[in-house]
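Exercise 4. Each item below gives a protein and its sequence. For each, produce the structure-token representation.

Item: HNH nuclease domain-containing protein (Botryobasidium botryosum).
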Amino acid sequence: MSVDLHIRNTAAQAQDKSWLHLLSIPLADVQRLCHRPFKWLRFVLFAICGVKGDLYLAPEGEKVDYHNTLAHDFQAGDYYYIPNGSYNFIDPETINGRHTSIENVRRADFQDDIMARDGNQCRFILAAMPSCLCTAAHIIPHSKGSNYLAVLVQSRQHLYDIVDTTALDTYGIDSTENGLAMGISIYRAFTHALCGFIQTPNFALATEDIPYHENAPMPHPRCTLQYFEQWSLFLDFMYGAAVFHKWASGDDIRAKLGADAEAGILAAVAAMPPDLRPPETGAGASKRASQEEESKLSKAMDTILFLGCMLNGITPQGVAAQIREAMEQGEQRRQEESRAVAEAWCKAQADV
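Answer:
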């Protein structure tokens, strides 16, 4: 049994097909993901379509009962979404991280800023996780570039009352608003559209609408996301992309949204000048300058060391062999240290 979701076709040439079959989700999945399924489905359609709207029992039928229809009472069938404005669909290709910018250089201190803000740990795992098992992840893939992010914000910011975009203007795709500290396993699942993040409460969902699996009392602001600086605009966009990736009703609707993205956000990005961020200032610039000085000093020391080895009768091949052996020994030590930290963390997890 499945839940089939249809959206009103607002295209000018939609006389013969006034509804588009968007999603087909197994009933069991809908029931396990939310206590009040209609509220979750409304949020999902908002995230995919980029416009608020309402669900109806039939094309010309009654509006669904969002609050009083619980998971065990919810039934499979067809439901219809009518938008309260124009669509701003997700880009179905966002998941695969395809490049859309000409030039996009990573900000040197993105990792440091995200890890410092999020306490050097993944906030989505109950027990503390060592920082070596975490990474600073981009919500909108880094490969999409700052121009892509700018067009996305421009098209959807009215839905979130976003006024100040100073950070995005400065750092673009590497803004802290577009980053999260994630455990490596969660990061991999996120990049393959196997999971997503919902920030609650939002316009459609209350915090208590989403199942909670801890024994402790449920906090009102469910996710630590509530305390982060990143925008739910990015989380919602990627959540919609993940849901569409998993439960799109078929190839026709995939082609439809793909064509809309090509004519919309991707065309807008292609028409923009190369994606170049202004020079770094403050701590970021100081760090990069320090790294450059260290590199110059290292090269000078390498030259002196090489000349000294030659005077002592050591060949270039011998120098290379010594360096290779030292690097291999160093890498082995790093692996052993990381393994020891990981084993200690796993043991602590088992003892919780």
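Check: The chain has eleven helices and six strands.
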